[in-house]
Amino acid sequence: MLVIVGEPRxxxxxxxxxxxxxxxxxxxxxxxxxxxxxxVRTAQAEYDQHRPDVIVGSSRGGAVALNIDxxxxxxxxxxxxxxxxxxxxxxxxxxxILHSRQDDVIPFxxxxxxxxxxxxxxxxxxxxxNDHRMLKEVLESGKPEESQA
Length: 149
Known about the structure:
Strand order of the largest sheet: 3-2-1-4-5-6-7
Number of strands: 7
Helix content: 25-40%
Order of helices and strands: EEEHEHEEHEH
Distance between the termini: 39 Å
């Protein structure tokens, strides 16, 4: 799996937000938000080297994922910031987009537009979460299940 994530401001030490590419245990900085080309080059090199079964891209990383030549590898995009990064304006057939209507960083309507422009069925876009990071679902997924008495 190739994971491309935008790094939120509160989790970084640098002055400028970064996008990071992850394959196995490796994490590489790929450039500041408006510098799409370095991020796309890094992600493309990782894709070419590892040939993952799936690519997951979150926020800026979702936009980077849209801009690499990923052949027929499925994409899972989380709140993709495609309007802010790169030049891609459509997604391929084997793509799923997860996005929250309450996202206050990337409008849900951006993902609706991306699906429409790509001539994909509406169920390509799955509404989930209550913010940009879909934090509630992440926290709840880590809770132990209550035992049945």
